[in-house]
Design a protein that fits this description.
This protein is of the alpha+beta class. The protein has a single domain, classed as 4-Layer Sandwich (Glutamine Phosphoribosylpyrophosphate, subunit 1, domain 1). It contains four helices and twelve strands. The strands form three sheets. Strands 10-1-2-11-12 form a five-stranded antiparallel β-sheet, covered by helices on one side. Strand 3 and strand 4 form a beta hairpin.
């Protein structure tokens, strides 16, 4: 049954920089060996200073993203205070934990990268499909193409690199996955998160056609 559900064969990456956090992802969504979407949006804004990437079953990713966004807004109304990145990451981890343990034939399978900037600075978290949560000190990647992205990071990442340099590194990491992972492709999206908020800095489609 699971094979009939649309899911993302994905490469998503997150990088901590000196002045912010970068999230990037490819644009291909697959169902088995079939490409079902060449313009998939895998980076989503949760709040003015928080964004996430998704990797996994699309239906679960969409549901949990909407639920997390609503819970964050509700918490802000109740507390009259901004939500920290740690609070947002823990919220999403708790939702993921509950989702995968539902008593259904097909449990939820989706992982998230959470990035943002708050009063304490930039933060980057990796939320596993089981609801586990890991705060990353430098970089992280998720999805079927992550092994190729990690190879780029291990070679080229520098601690406290400026955000402009981080953007170039994110593009190289995603591009490495596009070259070798058949489930990743069709383009690159990159956003930056700084003290000024979330900003989309690149949305590029890559199409190969035979004329």
């Amino acid at each position: 049954m699971e094979d009939n559900l649309t899911r993302t064969g994905t490469t998503t990456v997150g990088i901590k920089c000196k002045d912010g956090v970068i999230l990037a992802a490819d644009k291909r969504a697959t169902a088995g060996h079939m490409i079902v979407d060449k313009r998939a949006e895998k980076i989503h804004q949760l709040d003015s200073h928080i964004a996430i990437t998704i990797a996994g079953l699309v239906s679960d990713a969409q549901f949990l993203t909407k639920l997390a966004r609503a819970e964050i807004q509700l918490k802000k109304v109740r507390t009259h205070a901004p939500v920290t990145i740690k609070e947002a990451a823990n919220l999403l981890a708790n939702l993921s934990y509950a989702n995968i343990r539902k008593l259904t034939m097909v449990p939820g399978i989706v992982g998230f990268l959470v990035g943002g900037v708050d009063a304490e600075g930039g933060h980057l978290y990796n939320i596993g499909v089981d609801g586990s949560i890991t705060e990353e000190e430098d970089y992280t990647s998720d999805g079927s193409g992550s092994v190729f992205a990690y190879g780029v990071f291990e070679t080229l990442y520098r601690k406290d690199m400026p955000i402009e340099e981080g953007m170039k590194l994110a593009m190289k990491a995603i591009n490495a996955a596009l070259q070798r992972d058949s489930a990743s492709g069709n383009g690159i999206d990159i956003i930056t998160i700084t003290k000024d908020g979330v900003k989309r800095v690149l949305s590029k489609k890559l199409e190969v056609k035979v004329e």
